[in-house]
Design brief:
The protein has 167 residues and is mainly alpha-helical. It contains three helices and three strands; from the N terminus they run βββααα. The protein has a three-stranded antiparallel β-sheet with strand order 1-2-3, with helices on one face. α2 runs antiparallel to α3. The longest helix is centred in the middle third of the chain and has 72 residues.
Length: 167
């Protein structure tokens, strides 16, 4: 039953008490756009009042509050476990990310070594052809071959250092 209260001017839901014929008025939740406060911020108060009314009517017993407390404590416990798990997952994700970055660096070095190996093989084939045809090697070709071998050695050393430092 909807009852209009004279003193506040608010409409409310009337609940008939068992002992007397008077109606206890519970204010209705504010409609959207009404500036009388946020429904969300007042919801614990409204929930408490509704619970009290239901206990008075005999719909809920005192044991229902205890079961809700058990449920709440279980929810809080599980929420704590989830927070711990989320923290653990974050740590593991950071470790995996760091490992992946290191692996990508190593992979890049390996690709550069492979490219240099191909150039060294081409240079060696050219040297063998010239040796077979008895054509002398130019100074530029010798310097290029020495430079490629030196660069390959440096990259291999860099790769080994990187492998030793990685977890």
């Amino acid at each position: 039953a909807v009852v209009s209260t004279q003193s506040t001017g608010e409409e409310g839901v009337g609940v008939k008490g068992e002992a007397d014929d008077d109606y206890a008025s519970i204010p209705s939740p504010p409609m959207e756009g009404s500036g009388s406060g946020s429904w969300v911020s007042r919801s614990p108060q409204v929930e408490k009042r509704i619970r009290e009314e239901l206990v008075c009517l005999g719909v809920l017993g005192a044991s229902d509050e205890e079961s809700e407390d058990e449920i709440l404590s279980e929810l809080l416990e599980k929420q704590g476990e989830l927070r711990n798990l989320a923290e653990y997952n974050t740590v593991q994700l950071n470790l995996l990310t760091d490992t992946a970055v290191e692996f990508m660096k190593q992979q890049e070095i390996r690709h550069r070594i492979d490219a240099i190996d191909d150039e060294v093989c081409d240079t060696y084939r050219n040297f063998m052809l010239k040796k077979h045809k008895k054509i002398p090697y130019s100074k530029k070709e010798k310097e290029q071959a020495a430079k490629l071998l030196q660069e390959r050695e440096e990259l291999n050393k860099q790769l080994q250092d990187n492998l030793l430092l990685s977890p």
